[in-house]
Design goal:
Elements (H helix, E strand, L loop, with lengths): L2 E4 L4 H19 L16 H19 L7 E6 L2 E5 L2 H11 L1 H12 L4 H25 L4 E5 L2 E6 L2 E6 L3 E8 L5 E8 L5 E3 L10 H11 L6
Helix pairs in contact: 1-2, 2-4, 2-5, 3-5, 4-5
């Protein structure tokens, strides 16, 4: 069980935020149906279609805006911490994402839709989770950074390695233009230096905590 370092939003705030987004989506969702605005009240079942279209938007928001549903966790181990993409979170995201094409498919086959607007709506619902969360999460499913008193261990797709702290000559923290932690360069005593590309490992949310651990535990090695 991981230690929660950033809680999800409070339940009442999350519900209020989602209801606000749902209401706005409902006001816009009639545009994807091939029904004039003044005939909406006479169109049997259209309100249910609008509800489903808005629900697809809510599901997209829950996946992309992780703070609504998913707390941020780190795994504490004896003498250190493991930073990694939370597997359960990704599985839940994949599971709830599958409901989006199911909802949109039902709308497409059960209602008369404006094809251009419908496919635009579908793109807004389906592409952001895939691009921003799902693909990145799957690609980095097994990636991790393990920092302990004695070792530094990492896996980044096909790159991996373990370094004994006692055999490290220096550690260089590479920062981006905003002065945020970006990469870590490990310089062993008798080997070539190795760069750990944190920016490729979906560890962005952990940068502050990684930085704090490095500066507190490996202060004598930092350059």
């Amino acid at each position: 069980m991981g230690k929660i370092i950033r809680s999800a939003y409070p339940l009442d705030f999350s519900i209020g935020l989602l209801l606000l987004i749902f209401g706005m989506a409902c006001l816009l969702s009639h545009q994807i149906f091939d029904v004039p605005v003044h005939e909406i009240h006479d169109s049997e079942g259209l309100y249910f279609g609008m509800f489903l279209a808005s629900l697809a938007v809510i599901i997209m928001v829950i996946i992309v805006w992780e703070e609504i549903l998913f707390p941020l966790k780190i795994k504490e181990i004896p003498g250190g911490i493991v930073f990694r993409n939370h597997h359960t979170k990704l599985i839940v995201q994949l599971f709830i994402y599958c409901s989006i094409p199911a909802i949109l498919g039902f709308i497409y086959f059960e209602y008369e839709v404006n094809h251009f607007r419908f496919f635009m709506w579908s793109a807004v619902c389906m592409l952001p989770p895939i691009i921003e969360k799902i693909i990145s999460g799957v690609n980095n499913y097994n990636d991790y950074l393990k920092l302990t008193q004695d070792t530094i261990e990492y896996k980044n797709n096909e790159k991996e390695g373990t370094f004994a702290v006692s055999h490290i000559q220096k550690i260089i923290i590479i920062r981006d233009d905003r002065n945020f932690l970006h990469k870590i360069e490990i310089v062993p005593e008798k080997e070539s230096s190795v760069i750990i590309d944190l920016d490729e490992m979906e560890l962005d949310d952990f940068y502050t905590f990684i930085d704090q651990f490095l500066t507190s535990k490996y202060k004598h090695l930092l350059h």
